[in-house]
Write a structure and sequence with these properties.
Length: 99
């Protein structure tokens, strides 16, 4: 087994732990979960929203709407993959805005 493979596995474990911690914070209604989400996925969210909308202000509004949706959905929702859950919500909001 190569060192690179081990490093990738460790990175995946760290990411999974961080997402679980964010989900725990959301379940405890800790507003820092939104800050952690923005710190971890803000750049990715911005690029997805910009790709769909092509406008900075609209992209920023979609990101804020997605964070509010996440705040209102968790709990009771308990996504297995927080990143995918966040991006799906963001994409749907951006597509609705595009229409």
């Amino acid at each position: 087994m190569s060192f690179l493979y081990i490093e990738r596995q460790n990175a995946k474990a760290v990411i999974a732990i961080e997402d679980k911690r964010i989900l725990l914070m959301l379940n405890n209604r800790d507003e820092q979960a939104l800050t952690a989400t923005t710190a971890k996925y803000g750049v990715l969210c911005r690029s997805v929203a910009l790709e769909i909308l092509g406008n900075d202000q609209d992209a920023e509004e979609c990101i804020n709407d997605a964070l509010l949706t996440i705040w209102n959905a968790i709990p009771p929702a308990q996504p297995e993959n927080y990143r995918a859950y966040l991006l799906k919500i963001l994409r749907n909001i951006a597509l609705d805005k595009y229409k």
